[in-house]
Amino acid sequence: MSETNPFSFPFMQHAFLGCFLVSLLAGTLGWLMLLRRQAFAAHALPHIGFSGAAAAVWLHLPPLAGMMAASMVGGLFMGQEQRGRQHPTQRDTMTGLILAASLGIGVWCLHEANEASSQTTTLLFGDVLGLDGPTLGMLAGLVSVCLGGVAILWRPLLFSSLCPSLAEAQGLSPTRLGQLFLLLAALAAAACAEIAGALLCFSLMVGPAAAALKLELPPFRGMVCSVLGALLLSWGGLLLAWYSDIPLPFWISLGGVGLYLLAGTVMTRKALRPVRNP
Amino acid sequence: MKEARLTCRDVSLQVGGHPVLHHATLDVPLEGLTILRGQNGAGKTCFLRALMGLLPLQGGELLINGHPPARARRHCGYMPQKADDTAPMLPVISHVMACLDGTHWGFPAPRKTRRKARALLAEVGALPLASRPLGALSGGERQRVALAQALAGSPRLLILDEPFAALDRASHEALLQLFSQLHQQKKVSLFITVHGPLQTTGLDLPMREITLSKGALHV
């Protein structure tokens, strides 16, 4: 894009701050979603949110509000999982149906709001360079709500994710917990879509989390690693986009795959290391 | 807490249209080791799940130590027949830590929880496995970790579904010795299901057998 210092521009400073906020969310929620085998939900939530944003554009409302509302409603329905013989097939079927229905509604809303095509493109591909003060404030609020929610739910969520049978036997409801968690994930997906767009925010949530899980780290360290990975992808992607003129989502998506391959290489080298005699 | 006791009053239990218990009545102490026997498909696992309050009864009353399952389960540890393996890449210690106060809100105190988890693993002879990924364990090792998880809530009663399945003879005997040790040192009673022969001679703990057959329970 330019040979000048990217940090000297206010819009780039906003972009770095926005990426920092979103990486906190994507790393944390993404790690939990993969642990709970909800990668499909992580993919579906921003798309469901996109339909809400499209409806908001049509109704002349803020797109982020529409995105949050639709993702949260979608998350509530997707969280209607029951443990049993059909699980997780039942969960994936539910996610697929909600995704299909919301995309259909989204297409209709876009058709009705055909004058707002630039806004639609922004929703699909993100607009990290267009972040202003109020949007950053809203992102900071979302991050606080989501991370606060994760902190409150932390023990039951981890218990029911790692030992679902035992958690249920101790009276925890997988349906209730799943719904609460997906509500938080829906908010996180809406925030991530501001940066990477509905199409590619999935890669920011999944890539670093997959690499952290591949490293077989315990929960807290795994989440910190996932957050750092998301930060590396988003900040690194911003700099690469600045100097290469290739859009940020491209770098985030490929970077996510790169992080996973790197984690795989680290684990292979670790496995090949000779065992020391005691 | 009262003496460990299992009471069934006119209990009917059906799962997927298949009758497991039909107006069954039973009242037995659960001190020591109680073995529930029955043929494959008799409904032993379903009965255990009903004991943990995971399956609703169609009729009658089921009490553990005088309390219904939803209340009594706070004092019960449960080990399912097939242990959970949803996150095989995470270390064993994380799986045990997750079970400690897992129903409470918020973050745990990490050092204290880790210390407790290590103590539980040491109790079942699985401390050397603490940093290994769960998915890399053998059947016998996984069983020991599952037992440590079941002990996480300091239960007075352990409900174990087929704990000897897929264990070789040596692991079999070691597990029985561990049961005896748990009873003597921590006063934990055990309620287990078994469908094959079980060599219990020389075991130093009170024992009784219950048979589940054709919808009825017999001592």
Largest sheet of chain B: 6 strands, mixed
CATH class of the domain at 7-197 in chain A: Mainly Alpha
**Named CATH topology of the domain at 7-197 in chain A:** ABC transporter involved in vitamin B12 uptake, BtuC
- Percent of residues in helices of chain B comes to 25-40%
The CATH homologous superfamily of chain B is termed P-loop containing nucleotide triphosphate hydrolases
Topology (elements, then pairings):
The complex is a heterodimer of chains A (278) and B (219).
Chain A: H1 10-35, H2 39-58, H3 63-78, H4 89-112, H5 117-125, H6 133-162, H7 164-169, H8 174-214, H9 219-244, H10 248-272
Helix pairs in contact in A: 1-6, 1-8, 1-9, 2-3, 2-4, 2-5, 2-8, 3-4, 3-8, 5-8, 6-8, 8-9, 8-10, 9-10
Chain B: E1 5-15, E2 18-29, E3 33-37, H1 44-51, E4 59-64, H2 69-72, E5 76-79, H3 92-99, H4 110-123, H5 139-150, E6 157-160, H6 169-186, E7 189-194, E8 207-213, E9 216-218
Parallel strand pairs in B: 3-7, 3-8, 5-6, 6-7
Antiparallel strand pairs in B: 1-2, 1-4, 8-9
